[in-house]
Design a protein that fits this description.
The complex is a heterodimer. The relative contact order of chain A is 0.07. Helix content of chain A is about 55%, strand content about 10%. The radius of gyration of chain A is 17 Å and the shape is flat. Chain B has a seven-stranded mixed β-sheet with strand order 1-2-3-4-5-7-6, sandwiched between helices. By secondary structure, chain B is α+β, with helices and mostly antiparallel strands. The chains are: A mainly alpha, B alpha+beta. At the A-B interface, β1, α1 and α2 of A face β1, α2, β3, β4 and α3 of B. β1 of chain A pairs parallel with β3 of chain B.
């Protein structure tokens, strides 16, 4: 049996504060945005298979 | 190395037929990931714990991605209202977990991992579920791969990384993010 995946992650105390403080990230680069656009197209082209 | 063109790749949900006929030659170079795909992925899928999608190149399994519904729970006992996320006081936020992602070692650096990741991101952006984050527990060797596509660490002390889907949707043009009517209205103008 392969390693089990940890579902249901909980952030508490300082970790929760740190996450909330940084939750909104810096702007994505133009390359990353282009990748996200392409990702939507790839999903749309394949979504009828699922 | 040149990326394999996307039109040469296809993606298919793991099923009993493709599991029987296409998985044997697959070798990611990582025994744990190979073992998961060949022995556990279909069982987990039948139990609806996760779903595994195979990427095919020239009729052979070139890689796979396993996705599961997940959440990030935030226990905020000592936090004040100003720290609610976008004004929401939810105790947990929906997320898609990339439980596994691997590429056959003969096809590393040909864009298969990128293609599989784009499927997960496209699902988060354009699929039928509300999901605020995509998260992943990457292996050490894959950290740079996820960083390249905008994933960041949840906290300094955790290896788990996440991508904020809301940030993505907001930074894409409004008519390409979450508005399902946008393409129709453009066509009628």
């Amino acid at each position: 049996m392969a390693r089990l995946v940890e579902l249901g992650l909980t952030l508490k105390g300082e970790e929760a504060e740190e996450f909330l403080k940084n939750e909104k990230g810096p702007a994505f680069t133009s390359e990353q945005l282009a990748f996200f656009r392409q990702a939507k197209k790839i999903y749309k082209a394949n979504c009828n298979k699922f | 190395m040149e990326r394999i063109p996307e039109k040469a790749l296809s993606i298919e949900l793991l099923n009993t037929r493709n599991a029987k006929y296409t998985l044997a030659p697959f070798d990611s170079g990582d025994e744990e990931l190979n073992d998961f795909l060949k022995n556990d992925a279909l069982k987990e899928q039948q139990l609806l714990l996760s779903k595994t999608h195979l990427c095919f190149y020239k009729d052979r399994a070139a890689g796979f991605i396993t996705l599961a519904a997940d959440s990030i729970r935030i226990e905020k006992d000592k936090l004040d209202v100003s720290q609610h996320i976008d004004g929401c006081n939810y105790p947990a936020y929906p997320c898609i977990l990339i439980a596994r992602l691997a590429v056959d070692k003969r096809l590393h650096r040909y864009g298969i991992g990128r293609y599989l990741l784009s499927f997960a991101i496209g699902f988060a952006l354009g699929g039928p579920l509300g999901c605020r984050y995509i998260s992943v527990d990457p292996k050490e060797t894959a950290l740079k791969f996820y960083e390249k596509f905008g994933f960041r660490y949840l906290t300094k002390s955790k290896r788990r990384m996440y991508l904020n889907v809301t940030d993505m949707a907001q930074q894409l043009e409004p008519d390409e993010s979450l508005d399902p009517w946008a393409e129709d209205s453009k066509a009628t103008i």
